Every structure is written in structure tokens, then in C-alpha cells.
Fold this protein.
Amino acid sequence: MPARLIARLDIKGPNLIKGVQMEGLRVMGDPCDFARRYYEAGVDELLYIDIVASLYGRSKLTEVVRRTAQDVFVPMTVGGGIRTLDDVTDLLRAGADKVAINTAAVKTPELITQVARRFGSQCMVLSIEAKAMGPGKWEVYTETGREHSGLDVVDWVRRGVDLGAGEVLVTSIDREGGRKGYDTGLIAAISAAVDVPVIASGGYGRTGDLAAALGAGADAVAVADALHYGRKTMADLRAELAGGAA
Amino acid sequence: MKVAVIDYGMGNLFSVRRALDVAGAAEIDVTADPARLALADRVVLPGVGAFADGMAGLTAGGFVPAIRASVAEGRPLLGICLGMQMLMDASEEFGLTPGLGLIPGPVRAIVCGRADGGRRKLPAIGWFPLAPAGANGWDGSVLADLAPQTPVYFLHSFHAEPQDGAHLLAAYDHDGLRVTAAVRRGVVTGTQFHPEKSGPAGLAILRRFLLG
């Protein structure tokens, strides 16, 4: 499959924010402005994650999605605080194409099957926040990296796909915001475990990191602060994705 | 140019409506009333989700005879994603379900196993380059303004298999397999990909559908 370049926008209330290892947040501005700019620059897909929704209930996420869909015509995956089929319906009606579910999927795995049956597997993205527990071992975290679940990442991803997830978004808690590159061991372990597409998120730092993630088996790569802070342009990343990178 | 968008409880109507608006539709009627199709110049059948649910929604809304009548009157119809699959005879998704039967042929799961014994990733998600399928390319179709190999956005595990090769308008290659991207028969066109999510190329397709 052609590799996808995804702009990841973490939001809190009405704002785009950027966290460092999921703690310590900085407000960046209106997410819709960033989304529009990335669309015009040729991004393949947008990923919105409401990072406080799973803690405090869903807030302005649907509104942000609706405003974005006004003038952004690429797919949007949306996550954060989704607990019910009605939550999914609201987001899809607002212009989302896929939903990413983490905490509620761990608590009530049947939700994965319900979403897949109603809206199709292609709509149900299993979001996994993974923390390294030792060599070749990762644990699933929920509540935006705050709560550990006791689940092994590889076991959980197999189960999630069996239940109907059509795509996996894996965020490395250890690498997120650290600019040290993606956790390629984690990506390789997940890609080897399932046949559905895998989105790697967390850790993009420099040229070569995208190729490393794809080489480990990712089908798509999510980039956040390198774009938000303008350290890289879409063209830079696109060239890197096409194999033009060192 | 007035376009009716069929609302039968499935899919992201908001994105489709907004894209048609930007593509230049003068009036967009998102409607759950089958009688309104006859008042439009063009009809769009969107849809995301399971085939059986989609057909159940169309049937419950009274749209099945209205869509057939609209096509018989020569009104152009564009099916998108699930809307495209429902143009076909039937689908094998979760058991066999009859479709609208506007284009002969079934909807089947994309084959997972590759010729080399490896496994093809599914669902197919992403921007795949479109290739014209027929001898005459895609002149005169909604794709007319696109250069061959323009990438558009796909998100699916099932695809249409038109019985008559002449009804296959465009295809793409997924890991060595030719997958149906668009079908066409007379005034009926279907795109497996999402023009409303395919950036400027997608908007050009919708513009051509409105004008052509």
C-alpha cells in the first residue's frame, strides 16, 4: 500500500496542544487553522485526538471536526472519549471517516465489534498507547497514558483485530514528544501480529525516522510537533516518505 | 444544477454535501423523501457501513423503486463507496444480500492471499493511483478531468466485480491485485473511493459529475 503521511493534532477543548510524553501541555492555537494548512500542503490524512475527553467526558471535539470538514477534503480519524455507538455516529455525521478508540475498547471490548458491525471494520481504528516494560515487551495504557491496563500490547492487538478493528494506531508513550524516532521494535511486533494497516505515532525527530518506521512495517506515519512548530514542511516529509531521505 | 443526496441513515452526509457545495452545486437537497429525486438534475447515493444495513435503509426509506425510476428517466446517478457497491446485483458481505441491480455483477471480499503466498493487508486504506480500465480510457466520464495515475482515497475491504468488462471504468493495483475503483453503465456511475475525501482531484470529479 502507498505509505500515508498523517498530521496528528492533539486537542484540548477548542485548542491544538502539544504535550511532551503526554504531560506538560502547550497551547498552539485553533486546530482548524492547522488542519486547513496541512490539507492545502497535501497531507494524506488528519488524526484528531482529544486528550482530555477520556478523562472528563467529550467536549468540543465534534465541533472541531465539523468546522474542519468545512474546507478540508481528506480523511479524518478522530479519537478521545468515545464510549458508545452514538458517540461514533455523532463524529461520523460531523465529517469524521474513522474513529480511534482506546480506553473504552479496553474496558468494553465488545464496543469494537459493535462499531465494526454498524459502520464497517474500516471505520474502527484500535488506538493503543504502549509503554515499554522490557526488551520486546510493551504494556497497554489507557486514559491518555495515565492508567496501566495489565494487557500485553501484542496480545491485545491480536484480540482487537479479531473483534473487528480494521486499523491500528500505535502511540509510543516513551517516544511521544521526545524527537528520538519511532519505537521500531514496537511497530515491528505489532505489524508481525496482524494483517491490518498500522499507523505509527510518537517520536518523529529527524530525517530518516519515517523510513525507519515504514521499514519496521508501518503503513502510515503520524507526525505532530515537527509540523506544528514548522521544523519540517509537508514537502520535506513527503520527500522523505518517497524514499528521498538519507 | 440541483443535486439530491439520498439520506437513508448511513454515511457522512456532511462531507458529501460540503464537497458538492465547493464543487459548484447550485442547490443541494439532502433528502429522506424518495419523491424528491424526481425534482433534481443529479442524484448522489453516498454511504459508509455494511451492505445489508445500507440496503435495509434504502428499502425502509422507499428509495429502491425511486432510484430505479430516476435512472430509467435518464437522471445521472453517482454512488460513492457503499453507495457504489449497492449499484451492483448483490454482495457477499455477511451473507448474500441483493443490491439495486443497476450494474450486473457481485460485490466480493478483496482476496487476502497473494500469488506468492504472502498476505495482502486489508482493509485497503489510502491513496492509490487510478488507472483507466477500458480501451477508451475514461473520456466522457466523471474522471475525464483527471490524469491517469492520479491518487484518490480508498477505505474498503469489499469491491465490485462487474460481469461485463465494459462496465469497469477504473481500477487500481493493491499488492498485485486489480481492484475495482469505479464502474459505469449509462447514466449510472459508482466510485469505490471517496471523491469527497480525495482533495482537489475528488472535487474535480464531483464538478464533472455536476456539469457533465
